[in-house]
Design brief:
By secondary structure, the protein is α/β, with parallel strands linked by helices. 26% of the residues lie in helices and 24% in strands. The protein has helices at 40-54, 69-72, 75-81, 96-99, 110-120, 125-134, 157-164, 210-213, 235-244, 268-275, 300-308; strands spanning 3-7, 11-12, 15-16, 19-26, 29-37, 58-63, 83-88, 137-139, 146-147, 150-154, 192-194, 217-222, 225-229, 252-256, 284-288, 311-315, 321-325, 344-346. Helix 1 (40-54) packs across helix 3 and helix 3 runs parallel beside helix 6 (125-134).
């Protein structure tokens, strides 16, 4: 089965995002999936890319991993410019009856909570509106469902509604704080760090927001080649994905580095589970969506950790990156230069 994965550049300065295009051969036809659309500008680039390289006006699956602007906004352009078969988004505003107890202050009602959630998810709700207007089927990407050849490994519906949504930065303040606020975690002062191939400084205590942990994690196994897309997921979500399907580590060949290479989203132990332990030959590819001028992404300690576990690490950093198997070469594309392992760096 031939397939190709395109990561388009998203963002400027320290603001990065995701715009991922996937095409695979299904018998005599090709299927196309868009996972996140970056900004509105990124959405326009997606339209151009699909028409130029995929030669189609039909998108089979559009998936929004989580409601951040730099992941969701560009998908409205995709929905407006293509014939789309299925839109996959989370719609927490449809579950107010199940979650209202987390927000009940004696004044809030199901209707008012629904309106507040729709307003909070201001980059996702328009996707629903466009899909309804155009007659596009809307589905929700919870653990266990299949989207084409991909299976959703995280989040589960229970975890999403009853733990993540009450702790979202975007949702109304819950009546009780369920966990430490991500916003209270401060960046450490930059220090010079020394590493060797044998020793790493990446911490085990990485923590990200509930918003990021809600990211849809997708896994496909194509001809014994595993493909893993992670969005902005963190250690908790990655661990839940691994526990749901431990076999994903057996033949993993391609992985998206979570959250643009942030050190808060991965740990040595979860990378050991998913990628295998340190010292492997480089037989896997890891893609990072990172702005060309970002001073925050990717973190070198994260790049080093993926390299230790057998990955060639490729970052967008202002240009499109393409991973493919069995599809024809593109004249305008050359082999990407992997990011180097560094023994001394500042973080």
């Amino acid at each position: 089965m031939n397939y190709e994965i395109d990561f388009l550049p998203v963002g400027n300065g320290d603001k990065s995002g995701d715009a991922i295009l996937i095409r695979w051969q299904d018998n005599e036809k090709y299927k196309v999936m868009i996972v996140d659309g970056g900004t509105k500008e990124s959405g326009e680039k997606i339209v151009e890319h699909v028409k130029k390289y995929y030669n189609t006006n039909t998108i089979d699956y559009v998936v929004n991993t989580h409601p951040d602007q730099d992941h969701a906004s560009g998908l409205s352009v995709v929905l407006e410019n293509f014939k789309v078969s299925e839109l996959w988004i989370h719609r927490p505003w449809n579950y107010t009856k199940e979650i209202i107890d987390y927000f009940d202050d004696g004044r809030i009602t199901e209707d008012s909570l629904k309106r507040r959630l729709e307003k909070s998810f201001s980059y996702v709700k328009p996707l629903e509106d466009i899909a309804i207007q155009k007659g596009i089927t809307i589905k929700e990407p919870y653990q266990g469902v299949e989207i084409g050849i991909f299976k959703v490994l995280s989040p589960s519906k229970t975890w999403y509604l009853h733990e993540l949504i009450p702790n979202f930065n975007k949702t109304p303040k819950a009546k009780a704080v369920l966990s430490e606020s991500y916003e209270s975690i401060k960046e450490k002062v930059l220090n010079w760090i020394d590493e060797t191939f044998e020793t790493e400084t990446l911490n085990e205590d990485g923590e990200t927001s509930a918003d990021n942990e809600s990211s849809v994690i997708l896994y496909a196994n194509i001809d014994e080649k595993g493909l893993l897309l992670t969005g902005d997921s963190g250690v908790k979500a990655l661990d839940k994905a691994y526990l749901y399907n431990k076999d994903l580590s057996n033949n993993l060949k391609f992985i998206q580095v979570p959250h643009h290479g942030s050190r808060r989203n991965v740990s040595p132990s979860i990378l050991d589970k998913i990628l295998g332990e340190k010292g492997q030959e480089q037989n896997k590819v890891a893609f990072i969506s990172a702005s060309e001028t970002s001073s925050k992404h990717p973190k070198q300690s994260v790049v080093n950790s993926f390299i230790r576990r057998g990955c060639k690490v490729i970052a967008t950093q202002g240009s499109s990156k393409w991973h493919h198997n069995g599809t024809p070469d593109r004249e305008s594309y050359s082999t990407a230069e992997p990011l180097p392992f560094k023994n001394k760096f500042q973080e």
